[in-house]
Amino acid sequence: MSEANGEDEGAVPPDGRVARRERNQNAVLDVVLEMFAEDMMFPSIEQASKRSGLSLRSLYRYYADPAELVESAIKRNREQTMEIAHLPRIGEGPIDDRLTAPDASFGRSSKSNLPASWRRCR
Predict the structure, then answer these.
(1) What is the predicted pLDDT for the residue at 27?
(2) Does any domain span residue 112?
(3) Is residue 4 one of the residues assigned to a domain?
(4) Is 32 helix (H, G, I), strand (E, B) or coil?
């Protein structure tokens, strides 16, 4: 690893098309999560396309069908929330201390650290 920039010296920089594809996929998955928050549990690819501003062609290239789109959105949500849901010191120390003392792990779940779809729901 290069100490100057913290990057792996042998790493190949990401291709612009790959980075754009990832940004587009994340954008549409965030839109689907917003739709979930609005009680739209089974959004179509057409609805996701319209709300995200991405073309139907792109979305069908990324996701074979609506089930794959929904599954990918659920996976993204799980990845986003894993860090804030993790309680590293659960069960350690006296119960009274755990109930009354502030814990660093709780600080990570502040509203600013939540995924965008969760912040709008609260």
Answers:
(1) 96
(2) yes
(3) no
(4) helix
